[in-house]
Amino acid sequence: MSSEIVKTLAELTDEQFHKIADFIQTNVGIKMPDQKKIMVQSRLQARLKALDIDSFDEYIKYAFSETSASDEEIALMIDVITTNLTSFFRENQHFVAMTEKILPELAGRGIDKVELWSAACSSGQEPYTLSIVMSEFIRTHTSSISDFSVLATDISSRVLEKAVNAVYSMDDIDDLSFDLKKRYFLKSKNVVERKVRVKPELRRKVNFQRLNFMDNSYPIQGKKHIIFCRNALIYFDKETQEAVIRKLVDWLVPGGYLFLGHSETIFGMNLPLVTVGPTIFQKDS
Question: Which residues are known to be catalytic?
């Protein structure tokens, strides 16, 4: 009778966790408090299995060695550890403010093409929502605005790949009106799959790019009228938050708008921004 040996899952020691946590905070800006240890252990166990590595000591030596393979593993490690949560029209008050106040104000300046940036785009729901809002505004308003472009960036290559594909569950668009579903999404022909895909004319408006907030400078092109950076800075300490926001603001045109998540604030920061709505800020002209 044959016996099967069951491999015990590796456990992460406090010392190993702190080494990984320090690296993540230094290089990605995300704080990893001690209560995240079990989450990190659970997510990285999949990497150990994929590499056929038995211990976290061995994994850390591999990931932090100065080789091309380690560079690839670091990117995969960041992908696995960072949490990506998003939905279409999340924090919808921001999109209402865009339609009712901000876009009419930009149109009043005679702007014909609005440049937008979703700076923590995750799996794509936010930049595609921005595209829907812009398309609807152009469709329903007579104004100078006739075109737009959305830059969408994230540190995770894994979620960027999903965002580019633009395939989502039908459950993801349950809360959208029938008209928006019909106008901007295509149903899968496979009824069992219950999948939808963003229509190509909307996908063409979004350009995806990998970007790390901790980089000294951001390799993007052209100043933006509107930047969304929501629910990403909550993982950073106050000093890092201010440094990142300052770099984002550098990419805003004078009078441009920055949107943060509803749990985020610029209180106590020395930034050239004025509050114009709940977690909506305008750059000094």
Answer: 43, 154
